[in-house]
Amino acid sequence: MDIAAWLSGLGLAKYATTFAKNEITPEVLPHLSDADLKALGLPMGPRKLVLAAISELGKSDMPAAGSTPRPEAERRQLTVMFVDLVGSTALSGRLDPEEMAEVIRTYQHAVAAEITRMDGHVAKFMGDGVLAYFGWPRAHEDEAERAVRAGLAIAAAVAKLATPANEALGARVGIATGLVVVGDLVGEGAAQEAAVVGETPNLAARLQSLAEVGSVVVAAPTRRLLGELFELVDLGHHDLKGFATPVQAWLVVGESQAEGRFEALHGMRLTSLVGRDQELAVLLECWRRAKAGRGQVALLSGEPGIGKSRIAVTLRERLRGEECVSLGYHGSPYHTNSALFPVLDQLRRAAGFEHEDTPEMKVAKLQTLLALAVPDPTSAIPLIAEHLAIPTGDRYPAPEVAPEQKKAKMFQALLAQLDGLAAKQPVFMTAEDIHWFDPTSLELFDRVVDRIERLPVLLVITFRPEFVPRWTGRPHVTLLTLNRLGWSESTVLIDHLAGGRPLPAEVQAHILAKTEGVPLFVEELTKAVLESGLLRETGERYELTGLLPPLAIPSTLQDSLLARLDRLTPIKEIAQIGAVIGREFSYELLAATAQMDEPKLRTALNELIHAELAFCRDTPPDAIYTFKHALVRDAAYESLLKSRRQQLHCRIATVLRERFPDRAEAEPEVLAHHATEGGLLDDAVSYWHKAGLRANYRSANAEAIAHLSRGLDLLATLPETPARDNREIDLQLALGIPQLAAKGHRSAEVMAAYTRAHALCNRHGGETSRLFPALRGLWTGYRARGQMRTARDLADQLVTIARRSGDQSLLLEAHHAQWTTHYCLGEWRSVCEHTAQGFALYRPEHFSHAFIYSGHDSAVCATAHEGVSLWMLGFPDRALARAEEAVTLARKLAHAPSVMQALSLAFVLHCFRNDAAAAREEIEAMSQIAHDGMPRWIPDANLQMAYITALGSEQQARAGMTTIQEALAADEDVEAKGFYVCLFASVCGLAGEAEAGLNALKPAIEEVAATGVRLWESELHRIAGNLLLGSATLDLEQSEAHYLRAIEVAREQHAASLDLRASTSLARLWAHRGDRQKAYDLLAPVYAWFTEGCDTRDLVDAKELLDQLR
């Protein structure tokens, strides 16, 4: 059919260009609604002509449903209706076949007319049955509501039909909502019933069998989408053929009496208003002015779900305690051409009309309502009653005037009502969703806006961005555009929905990222997560029951999101391809993937931007496009069949590799994602490995763990071969590094990675390049767990393997393991011997080994450990210089784990040097880095800061005890734990709590023997001796014994500084006891040994004591 010729035949040839420009084809005609034609710019008269002509097109024998070419199959939420003509079998036995055919034809026309009126799609006529879809081929934001409205209208329309023998007809309707695959599934000429796959159509058909004649029954998912828009009765659960479990059904009684759509859809589920304090303050100021007689109009603009109606409801609640009249008017998408619908709907609700009211009762209620505003409503009653379709009889005869005069009188009557109400009390008015108001109502509100400037009235008008208000720029009109919520505000909303119980951080982050500050999205996605079974309540919080899967779009948002895409059916494929690429996509990559003519592609992308589904930066070919909402992107992606998604991912991976090698090199995780989803699993493993290594290099630990774990998961699906095992070894070795940095040396994850790698090496003979890092990873875990005998054996093996290989870089890392092992053992000279060999081997390129072995640079580690060791050996000045060199080198490398290694050991040194100010500087730097992406260091930084703060006073020491004790309980690193016990015990001494310190020291001293970690052994005994002197028992013998043991250990370790400390403490005890010469003889030779650091506190204290003893 030629569209231009068809329009010409209707006398509407001038619109042919408009139809052609908007690609209105014969196939599109049956799907056009009044709203569509209005959007095309057609006035009401031509719209009526076109719609009537479209309906006539179907009467040349009702066209087979779906006879137009069908869109490509896709996944989507669909509301399915099944209508059955009751008693048709019996009728066919009583009626002549020709009469029965006419009955069926009339019935089908009646049903199809109501389905089409609600913009549904008649999928198939099956004699006495009709199958219809709501949500395909084009979705609306309210498909369930449309289906129910159509169902109620069908029941009423069929009830008015009769057979030639005047027997009444009746229909029953079943409606269900669910995920289906819909479209052209098996090619041209396929049977229509194959157009939908899923249980939803079958459920709709089964539900109609539960319905009584003239009634509508819906499934539970449909009922959830309806909110309180309709009165529904729970029919309980029913066993239905084809369904494994009983199905809950609901009977639709009729429309509810809810005041507006917002209240009906949200009802009692309203959440706290969040993030709108500023807007509420503006509206309350408008109300203050209005009460003073300076009427105000507040315009609230914002996208769907942004919270316009929620603000209006909150404002109404705030004013509930004040003396005022509240009037609410609500637009409806089904009545955009019903004259004065919002006004008449408000009058019906305000008057309290009931379904069973007689005309006389309704007139009486109307009279009572109108009399509240004007003394004599006699002239207004017939005008308003006529619009409400209430017969008034002779008592209130309708005026015999022309239509225009009648309209003017109606306006006068309505405005007089407003004047009368405002004369008695201030008036608060809301006109919600004014973008759905009919033209006559808009004309009335033009006059209302003019009139209230001199009345005590506040009028709040809400609308979507596409509506252009005609009242801006006037002194009593305020325009407020609602923006999205910030993350903190969205978090408050999530917490409220979760009942104050925190959600797991990753779940909350996912919700925030997906919803992007749109309150409705935040609410619905949070509720969906809470109802999904993914979480369990544990005390005061929620925990995940397993891994967090991708969150599905809530059913309450499916229709709304799909509707946005379906408005652009000709270009939806471009949106879908863009969605497969990601939330953000470049013009070049899209063009290479879509393989579309450039002019057509640019036009499609311009339409995507014009429809506000995407934003654009720059211009093609350099343009970058971003979906406005993450959930819109998800909806476009999920609408694709899985097979089509896989094809597109595969194509994108190929295009990236072949056409954009630079991007593939810079962002291997992008290529890995598309290869994974495209089924290119072998390639995907390689790209995930590469992505993990790159993330390791940037110290992006969480990302590295995610990439490498994904690679391992995919690798497990490939056939077992020696080559696959070698790839797994490489992945496990790479995974150990970020696990170590993120979760600590002792973590089970670190041990699991290296144990698995080592086992695979042994299975295949173990190449040195793989065996060495596997053994070194195991050494790391055993050392951190305090299993020093095993750790020392592994360190020796590493040296043997490295020397055998002749690889100098491996030998460096073997010495790296050795100096760290000897450090834990308190063998300070051996530490320096191995660091010296390490420095001789180190080259700048060895920095890269940080990403294979310990996670930090070996030169930084050697320098920092040598610094502490030099102090222990009695060289405090050289020790300080080495510590500063370590920090400088680490910062030059700009490698966070290496910086933390240097800072932490520098802190240890400053503590030994009693330099609190320098120690504080290191802690502050550590804390900043820890909070910027190394959370495992946060407890250490907090503990160390608590120690430094505790040195200030006895009161601060008491406060510090609690913080340090809590951190100690959580710390399992044997190397650090002994040091922290020393700090805690020292603070206990300052706080006058010697017993608490001794209670912590006792198990720490016992643990030395169990683990062999002896680096803090001397200090543990020395501090124990100090605390015993300050304890209630004042046990001098025990104190002396601890000091003697401290000196013994220090001399075994050649730790001159520890020897000096312990000797000073013991000399002080002996002097106190009267053995001054013995004390002098003990301390003098130890002090005399030192050649540097004479200004450090330990040497100053020793000299002062010696001077007293002379």
Automatic annotation (TrEMBL):
GO term, biological process aspect, one: cyclic nucleotide biosynthetic process
Domain SAM as annotated: residue spans: 1-42
Domain of life: Bacteria
GO cellular component: cytoplasm
GO function terms (MF aspect): adenylate cyclase activity; ATP binding
Coiled-coil residue spans: none
Keywords, comma-separated and alphabetical: ATP-binding, Nucleotide-binding
Domain Guanylate cyclase residue range list: 79-208
InterPro entries to which the protein is assigned, alphabetical: A/G_cyclase (IPR001054), AAA_16 (IPR041664), Nucleotide_cyclase (IPR029787), P-loop_NTPase (IPR027417), SAM (IPR001660), SAM/pointed_sf (IPR013761), TPR-like_helical_dom_sf (IPR011990)
SMART domains: CYCc, SAM
UniProt name for this protein: Adenylate cyclase
Species annotation: Phyllobacterium brassicacearum
